[in-house]
Amino acid sequence: MSWAKRAIAALQRGETVQVRPRGHSMTGRVNDGDLVTLAPCDPATLNVNDIVLVRVRGTDYLHLIKARQGERFLIGNNRGGINGWVGARAIYGVATKVER
Fold it and tell me: Residue 95 belongs to what domain range?
């Protein structure tokens, strides 16, 4: 089971979880191997630039909210890439802390 699937399961149980995601798409906001604390969230409280654990077209990402239109969220990385629009149910948690 991947780190994202374990984190999603914990968030769905209402738990706060810490993960160390790997990769470079979020460099500058979340660097490779940073410790990220994720908490369950109410999508109504989410804003542009929040870092969220989200599923877009079947793939889990720790990416940014780039735009919002009502209950729809545009998801992308910190390097200019766009993953696409998702509904509120695709967002599992929000980053509350990033530690280098």
Answer: 3-99
